[in-house]
Amino acid sequence: MSNKKGRGNSLQQNRLKRWKPDKVYFDDIIEKLKNQHGRERSAEENKLLIQSMAYFQKKGMSLNEAANECQNMFKGSNNTYLALWNYFIKTGDVDISQTHHKRGLEQHKMLEIWDMDDEIDCFLEFAFDYTVSNNTGFSINDLISFLYDEHGIILDTYTAQCLLNEYGFHWSQQRVYYGNEFQKDRVSELKRFLFQYSNSLRLEKDENHVIVTSDESWANTGTSFDNSWLHICDNNEDCYVCNKFVQWANGDATASIAKSNVGKRCVFAHAMSRDGLLAEKLEYKDDTSLYTQPSFDELVKLDTQLNTSELIIECINDNYNDYHQQMDHGKYILWFENRLIKSFNKIYPNKTAIFFVDQCPFHMISNGFPQTTCNKEQIIEFYNKYEIKNITLKRYQDDCLLGPTLTFDSSKFNKYPKKKKPETGGPSKDELYMYLFLFLKKKMPSALEPVIVQIAKKYGHKVLFSCPYNPNDMPSEYLNNHVKLLVKQRCKKNRTISELKTDIRDGFYGGMTRSRRIHKCVDTNMINGWFSKCETNMNREIYDLLGIKDKNIQTLWQKNSEINITDPWIRVPKSEKTLKKLSKQFIIVIDNENQFFV
User: What does the alpha-carbon distance between residue 248 and residue 242 come to, in Å, rounded to a whole number?
Assistant: First the structure.
């Protein structure tokens, strides 16, 4: 697969090279090409347009900017120029009218917007049936597949979009932003991750280590495409589409459009190395049985060890707003030890894993340190656990450090702090919390490590945590998207939870979409492509955000680097903003040394 891709890229580069002139004499061609809207250009005219777009790109314009420039000079639509350019790059041909004559169909039609009289009703009937049957709008690919499969009509994407616009169908779009703004307080965390990932790459290349990435996600029985085409108008009596819909609906043209994610939910997870999904392979091979696939009832029993890291479980919690409320720490720990580590040890019996995960809440829980939601009494229980009898600190007031050092013994831990005569009061919750953190960091750092780090160490493995809210560095995000793509493509009205589980599983191992297209099994080429995309993004971060111009993710870590994958994982339990606020209120003193936590 990778070789074929490489040959394609080389072919495209040769075509680009051939069509990148140093100079285009626009005065000679502008009269030939302008004001051509409404008729089809000849192949020779298309060659001139290709030359023009190539020239603009050689001068530093993007493809869209080049198309806009052609639109300004030659009139017409910039979408036409983009379609022409993309077709030329893919095929090397400039005669778009010949696009679909190479497909080998015995009977076919090239559908044009101005020649729709005989075909419009079949298109509208598809739009109506799809919307009613699936309770959701449809994609352009759904429309193209329908016309091709059912009527032998071949429609290109651009014409399909024009067709939909022509008949009052609108694109229902919901934009999603990650809010991933790298400010100064996040650069240090990104630096930690990039150095540790680079260190992991070195270990994977030079030693007996394997990077294994995993993540959890979810899908609902009603999960469908967020973006879809819907017919939206005022139900005008003159609207041909509305009249047809009323006729087919026996007088009611109203369609209920579901949200993207409704219905019962499943949480799913899997892990993968560069060699493939982390599941035991069967001795025989076919398209559906390459990996071992236990029954869904077996997958739910997380205390049972299995040689697969696949996880698909139905959520029974009524809170569907946040799947973190359903895939909790207890379930994750069982899966981590009985599935992830068990599978790795079976597949790589003599190697060390570097488990690459994100920093979601249930990954980060430590049994040796209280959570930020704990109250004062719960924090004091940890003091009793570690037999810490007193705490020592200094306090600020109006940005000035107050008198002598304050020492509170365990008998005063439950007292409230006092401004007047503070030595007679007690410590605040924040003072108790930060003293415990800094004390353990100095005296007993292993107590602060998350449970999954401790479990991994027990089996001789390591854990690499990503930078928070940075999905572009996580190959497992691409895996989740690949699985959800099939879940969305198979969306139908009243999908059952059993069908959803099958759709998720087929998202991992391959299956057929509702439009009879093959959804590929996650394979080595696909996974390595995802790793490559993430590592390309890491290179940009090294250059742009860390300001390191002479290194990339492969060469960033050196033997003298201060940050290593083997460093104890200690996460500061408060946000940067909170720590700055607390640093102006008090200073922790341990062994007569001031401990600063910012």
Answer: 10
Residues in the chain: 598
Number of domains into which the chain is organized: 4
One domain, residues 32 and 120: no
Note whether 190 and 125 are same-domain residues: no
Alpha carbon 515 to its chain centroid, in Å, reads 25
Which token pair is 567?
Answer: 């460093």
Name residues whose C-beta falls within 8 Å of residue 163's C-beta, 6 or more positions apart in sequence.
111, 113, 116, 123, 155
H helix runs in 411-546, sequence order: 429-443, 451-458, 475-489, 497-509, 524-544
The CA distances from residue 426 to 30, 306, 378, 414, in Å, are: 84, 51, 16, 7
H or E stretch at 127? helix 120-134
DSSP letters for 537-558: HHHHHHHHTS---S--TTTS--
SS3 21: coil
Give the Cβ contact number of residue 66 at 10 Å: 23
Range of the domain at 483: 184-223+260-365+451-526
With CA atoms as reference, report the closest residue to 312 among 329, 293, 330. 293
Contacts of 421 (CB under 8 A, 6+ apart): none
Question: Which pLDDT score is estimated for 182?
Answer: 43
Q: CB of 269 within 8 A of CB of 507?
A: no
What percentage of the chain exceeds 70 in pLDDT? 74
Judgement on whether residues 393 and 416 belong to the same structural domain of the protein? yes
Residues facing residue 511 across a β-bridge: 519
The single residue listed with the structure tokens 């062994």 is 591
User: Which of 523, 533, 542 shows the shortest CA–CA distance to 474?
Assistant: 533
Last residue of a domain, one of 526, 542, 559: 526
Hey, what amino acid is at 496? T
Strands 265-273 and 311-314: antiparallel
Inside any domain, residue 439: yes
Residue type, 468: P
Same domain, 32 and 122: no
Q: 167 pLDDT band (50/70/90 cuts)?
A: confident
At 369 the three-state DSSP class reads coil
Establish if 254 belongs to a structural domain. Answer: no
The pLDDT of residue 572 is 73
593-595 and 109-110 strand pairing: unpaired
3-state secondary structure 481-492: HHHHHHHHHCCC
Q: Give me the pLDDT at residue 544, please.
A: 85
Q: What is the pTM of this model?
A: 0.65
Do 381 and 367 contact (CB within 8 A), yes or no?
A: no
Q: What is the pLDDT of residues 499-515, one digit of tens each?
A: 999 999 999 999 988 87
